[in-house]
Specification:
three-stranded antiparallel beta sheet
């Protein structure tokens, strides 16, 4: 299986100018489309675990690192 990278851009809720990038590596044999379909669940879990942050943007990057959606 090749990992797909779910890339989140997150900002502090108290300071929206303080942003950073977080990576969630998803082990799956599926495609970028699979990542896109599963992303909301992963994002919800990450947000629940990190309530001080807000996810402002996200994308899926395939195993070849050139395919981003």
């Amino acid at each position: 299986m090749n990992p797909v990278d779910l890339v989140l851009t997150v900002c502090l809720a108290a300071n929206p100018d303080a942003c950073r990038t977080e990576h969630i590596y998803i082990e799956q044999s599926g495609s970028i489309v699979q990542c896109m379909l599963r992303a909301p669940g992963y994002i919800a879990q990450w947000t629940e675990d990190h309530p001080e942050f807000e996810v402002v943007r996200w994308k899926c990057i395939g195993p070849n690192r050139e395919t981003a959606i």
